[in-house]
Amino acid sequence: MRSLVFRAVFVGSLGVSGCAAPELGEIPARCSDGTCPEGYDCIHGVCARPGTPIPITVASLSQLKGHDLRVIPQAASALVTWQTYAYSQEGQRFTGVRVRPDGSVSQPMELVSSFVADAESNEPYYDVAATPDGDVLLAVSAAPLLGDLSPMPRLITYRATLPPEGQEGSGVQFGAAWPEERRMPTIGFGAVSKPKFLVREGLVQLGYFQTRSDEVLEQTIGELFVINLNENGEPLASEPVAYPARADLPVAVSVEAAFSGSTGTWWVLDSERPSALLFTNEGIPIEKGLLRLAVGGTVQGSSLLYIKPSARAGDKLPSGPVAGGAALHRADHVLG
Fold first, then answer.
1. Are β-strands 219-229 and 203-214 bridged in parallel, bridged antiparallel, or unpaired?
2. Which residues fall within 8 angstroms of residue 14, CB to CB, at 6 or more apart?
3. Sign for the pseudo-dihedral over CA of 29, 35, 41, 44
4. Which of 4, 142, 173, 283 is deepest in the core (most CB within 10 A)?
5. What is the C-alpha to C-alpha distance for residues 222 and 220, in angstroms, rounded to an integer?
6. Cβ count near 215 (within 10 Å)
7. Burial level of 1, CB count in 10 A (0-12/13-18/19+)?
8. pLDDT digits (tens, 9 = 90+) for 273-331
9. CA-based angle 274:275:279, to the nearest 5?
10. Among 286, 137, 250, 280, which Cα is nearest to 197's?
């Protein structure tokens, strides 16, 4: 992987204008000393026309997978999180910074540093969610450790208490919200699914896609496994429920998105051949197929809005080249 720099776009003016420097054209130039020609502002270290959105550097990393970047709104800032990997110089860590509306970036905060991953296996998946009191829940799924004879992936949730705004250097208090890791069924050794949080009023749900072989039907059965948690991330007394999804799915389909709507909860499964699993308020599961490579967007009334990306060329993979525009679609649930 190549070295990457995170950037986020904020509009704001940091600095003053001056007239000592020569006139600049439309292309922004650096203003490390904070001064710019007349008609330009120094915005995040760049001379640009007032109001121009200028990216800011959030962090510089040697390796990063796109799905490992998360942005969580907070009361006075946005929490940007990522993970570093077991094989990297930093080791396996889950880290975050606060990005404020003026573009300033806090000191890095280690959200979870105790999770152990196998450097020879695929990188873990994770998801984060904010609790009503401002803490953060972080769920991690990962392959078995070296020497573990069980093929079952590992799943666990942590709770992290962040320091007050402006005191990020004082450190994060974190701990496992579960007494031990949960081992998840799979038909492939180390085949790991991506977990997903859904925060509702007074309830947090964690979805994970598991697979098993049905010897009677002689096929692979995919199930959305939903764990009900309290706002501390602790499992509730009720047993988790596994809801059947499509048969003959790949062994490591991920839970890509989750939304709560007026008619129930929507869980979007799979990134290549996605479908939406709706659990109505009456407790009835209904699965709806989505267009290939669709990306879940939001819920509006009794409908799921999703994006059909631009057409892919070549092998038509999510990472392939594209042509044309994207389109907004909807999956409706008709009230009976």
1. antiparallel
2. 42, 43, 44, 45, 102, 103
3. positive
4. 142
5. 7
6. 7
7. exposed
8. 888 999 888 888 888 889 888 899 999 988 999 999 888 777 767 677 888 889 999 99
9. 150
10. 137
